[in-house]
Amino acid sequence: MRLALTTSFLLLLGACGAKAADKLAGTYEIDAKATTAIILEDLKKQPGYDAAAAPTVAEAMSNATKGMSMELKADGTLLLKGTGKDEAGTWKLDGSKITITAKVDGKDDVQHGTVEGDTIKVTRDAMGKPLTVVLAKKK
How many other C-beta atoms can be found within 10 angstroms of the C-beta atom of residue 113? Predict the structure, then answer.
């Protein structure tokens, strides 16, 4: 009886995870406006912040991600596009936290982010400074 209950519980958890994966699956594109706003806020925290130059710098950093997209598949695989060549990888959801792993130059590149509705925010290191990118699910 205990084994049957444990098995049922694990199957229920697996089904809930599958539903979350199905809901999250889709193509996500860079939200340039949201990304630029976050970069601008991050720049304000940097020593030597230049209020006059910051908007131009934030927009240039955001534009560097233009044309990039990420396709999340319900089976936990993904495809990153627009990075010069398509990169395959995997993704895993734990509550609202997402871990994205892709092979870049033959090495695992692991990124962590958060899921909020139909958006994913991923913060990574860019030349020693944090760079947050917002991806919105393509409708």
Answer: 21
Report which DSSP code applies to 138.
-
Residue boundaries of the structural domains of the chain: 2-137
Q: What is the pTM of this model?
A: 0.74
10 three-class SS: helix
112-127, pLDDT tens digit by residue?
999 999 999 998 877 6
Q: What are residue 97's phi and psi, to 5 degrees?
A: -100, 135
29-56 in b/e form (b: 16+ CB < 10 A) is: bbbbebbbebbbebbeeeeeeeeeebee
pLDDT at 10 over 70: no
Alpha helices in 1-139 (DSSP H): 2-24, 32-44, 54-63
Q: Would you say domain 2-137 falls under CATH 2.40.128?
A: yes
Q: How far is CA 30 from CA 7, 33, 80, 113, in A?
A: 40, 9, 12, 14
The predicted-structure confidence for 86-117, as pLDDT tens digits, reads as follows 889 999 999 999 999 987 777 888 999 999 99
